[in-house]
Amino acid sequence: MFHSGTHKVKETAMKAMVYHGDGKASWDDVPDAVLVDPTDAVVRVDAVTICGTDLHILRGHVPTVDRGRILGHEAVGTVTAIGSGVRQLAVGDRVLISCISSCGSCRYCRRTSYGQCSGGGGWILGNRIDGTQAEFVRVPFADNSTHRVPDGVSDENMITLADLLPTGYEVGAINGRVRPADTVVVVGAGPIGLAAIMTSQLFSPSRIVAIDLADSRLDAARKFGADIVINPDRLDPVAAIADLTGGLGVDAAMEAVGTAATFELAVQLVRPGGHVANIGVHGGPATLHLEDIWIRNLTITTGLVDTYSTPTLVDLVAAHRLDTSALVTHRYPLDEFERAYHEFSNAGETGALKVLLTQN
Ligand SMILES: [Zn+2]
Ligand SMILES: [Zn+2]
């Protein structure tokens, strides 16, 4: 079903960030991205970023990623070639490449659950096929897996809509059922936590609480809309949330780290009848304390983003109702990808949220 990615039909002709296993990836010469199926497009990558998930791949947490794979599942670019089956795109169009590809016709895609696509899509870019951290990328199912960039919207504003914002919105705010006047807690104020904080505000909660061990991330959380911040090194989050909510707990708790401890904390912080939305990517098991929570009528959700909300988010950005540009903290030319990875993976010191790499 899946194509093997790099098709060695041409001589080496472009550069890309290639995964080599054992924590290593490098900016290598690779064969050109080319059309394979009629529904493919080839897109010149104008702007691309690195996701926390890429760091999970480097740590060996994502076994579907083979050595030799070009990484990356987020980009904004310009269409340079289209297959004979592509109807909605033309060469020269500026497009956002979604982290999720959609065949458009399987039972999941027909219910807008694109993340679970069983027709060869889902999260395939930079995972099962070559990704976007390259000069050019082959985009399968191009009509259903890209979004036209509205005039006047910059690559920088668009790039976080490839993955980060839809994930925070769908898997965080929507799965967490945030409603007007709710109290929301977001455990983890990295980029995903910030996206959950930003998009929760679309539902007018009374207050948003951010919890993180890094003060720099708590400062960012305030900037992106958190009303209250808690550093567990100085303040017990369970006691602080109990104080804040009259002993009840929050309406919605979002887990945005991907560790057992932060998931278990999110479950502890929610009120009876409340929602726990897990957003984090977990590499190991966590304990569900059913002995405590069976009586509390909790709803716990998990999710890979489907990106059904991307058109909504594109409209909000184009209408200046959502300002995503401040998420981009570091900028590099494409050929400094290795440095960008280094600085992104040391976010504690560098303060990196999203790093943007651009090709001129
Ligand atoms: Zn991602
Ligand atoms: Zn599908």
TrEMBL record:
**Which family, according to the similarity comment?**
Belongs to the zinc-containing alcohol dehydrogenase family.
* UniProt entry keywords in alphabetical sequence: Metal-binding, Oxidoreductase, Zinc
- GO MF annotations for this entry? oxidoreductase activity; zinc ion binding
The protein in question is named: Alcohol dehydrogenase GroES domain protein
Cofactor(s) listed: Zn(2+)
Question: Does the record carry Phosphoprotein as a key word?
Answer: no
Query: Has UniProt tagged this entry with the keyword Zinc?
Result: yes
Q: Which Pfam families match?
A: ADH_N, ADH_zinc_N
Every copy of the Enoyl reductase (ER) domain together lies at: 21-357
Organism of derivation: Mycolicibacterium vanbaalenii (strain DSM 7251 / JCM 13017 / BCRC 16820 / KCTC 9966 / NRRL B-24157 / PYR-1)
